[in-house]
Write a structure and sequence with these properties.
The structure is a homodimer of 224-residue chains. Chain A folds into 2 domains: 145 residues, Response regulator (Rossmann fold); 55 residues, Orthogonal Bundle (Arc Repressor Mutant, subunit A). Helix content of chain A is 47%, strand content 12%. Chain A is built from 10 helices and 5 strands. Chain A is α/β, with parallel strands linked by helices. The interface between A and B is large, with 38 and 36 residues. The first copy, chain A, binds a DNA duplex (30 and 30 nucleotides) through helix 7 and helix 9.
DNA sequence: GGGCCCATGGGGAGTGCCACCCACATCGCC
DNA sequence: GGCGATGTGGGTGGCACTCCCCATGGGCCC
């Protein structure tokens, strides 16, 4: 991939122009990296990569996880289905288990937090371009350790998002409804509502409704 | 302010190192602007400005609205109460009315969205340093027009919502901390934490922590 | 000085939430 | 034809949350 002579060609997608500009400055400072295209949302990124006339020949796509129109996750899913997809590196504000696993599921090779130093971003780009799955800044993190451990044991990823019913319950919880109200709304027993809530909390590794509420906002189940 | 000879001295606070790095590269490229300090959260920014030994002599503080520990808004409130406070410019991801007014209330001279171009950020810095209240990218915005209109008519800003202490408590609640944890964090009794929570719920007409969490996300006390 | 807001505490009652245990019916899939 | 996933339901216990009541002291404004 990308011989030692020509720099790797990068598409950069983030909805904040300032962030884009900053990341671009960081990457272009590297002799072997070159940002050849920018996108302000996921749809734009996909369109740029699909356009046969543009002939971008992108080696690496860096996508912000959360963007308008098409999120980075959705865009990654589309991009990884192309004939000769570029390597995908997800950029995220959130040190969040769900996002991380979702990113791997949609075909990303790397997941980098915006809180890391610029050096780490450059490292992640290099690792991704070498074909190594750069998982996280700081592989000592429990999240990654557990993930690698599961990989080693041959287990497949069960991060399995939520079931449709669980999504419904989470949405109502995050909207501030009590278990009793939700039970009435869905015409099931209070116990079943609580059961769903427990399962979701356990699945996502969360403790209470406030975390659930932030999750619901993040994934777009509700508006804040 | 800042003679034409020496560049203006800037403190930059944002919890995402990558964003900090990018903004710094943008600003340092200007001959008359110089980032002399960085902070990863509001508390750090305040501490740096307060420290008499550091002698930073900061002319302009650029604060991200949403940061851990102390938000940019809380930090701005503290900073503007110092003896010789620097000019304050708020940096925000959110095109949000509440946020915008809150920023003005806590003493900020400018409010810039992260979605603007780097040129606009530089312009905002220059305007703020000249003492002009640079209100928003694009002063034709209805938000700003209405605000200026109300100022002209001598109206005061809409009611002050929450007290600083209440803001702190809400932030911690929305981050998922229990009353006991918050009490330890703020070194007050559990009863007082609960008292603040009750008052806030009553003030905002809300019922529980999930509504409070959405509120905190809306006004930018926390990120989802 | 008197009033008001703010921050700090406490008691008690009722309810909700959350974590552990248990079970059974259905459906699809291999 | 069993096996896992999904949805449904129950019980118990402990703690947290929410809503009432009470109070004191400091600061600010008229």
């Amino acid at each position: 991939m990308t011989g030692s002579g020509t720099p790797a060609r990068i598409l950069l997608a983030d909805d904040h122009a300032l962030v884009r500009r900053g990341v671009r400055l960081i990457l272009d400072a590297q002799p072997d990296l070159e940002v050849v295209a920018e996108a302000g949302d996921g749809a734009e990124a996909v369109a740029l990569l699909r356009d046969p006339t543009s002939d971008l020949a992108v080696d690496l796509a860096i996508l912000d996880v959360a963007m308008p129109r098409l999120t980075g996750l959705q865009a990654a899913r589309e991009i990884s289905r192309m004939r000769t997809p570029p390597t995908i590196l997800m950029l995220s504000m959130h040190d969040n288990e769900q996002y991380f696993f979702e990113s791997l599921k949609v075909g990303a090779s790397g997941y980098v937090l915006k809180s890391v130093a610029d050096r780490d971003l450059v490292d992640a780009c290099h690792a991704a371009l070498r074909g190594e799955p750069f998982l996280y800044p700081g592989s000592e993190r429990r999240l990654v350790r557990d993930y690698l451990e599961r990989l080693r044991r041959g287990e497949r990823l069960p991060p399995a998002a939520l079931t449709p019913r669980e999504d419904e319950v989470v949405k109502l919880i995050a909207e501030g409804h009590s278990s009793r109200e939700i039970a009435r709304e869905l015409t099931i027993s209070v116990r079943t509502v609580e059961r769903h809530r427990e399962n979701v909390l356990q699945k996502l590794g969360m403790r209470d409704r406030t975390e659930l509420t932030r999750y619901a906002v993040r994934v777009g189940l509700i508006d804040p």
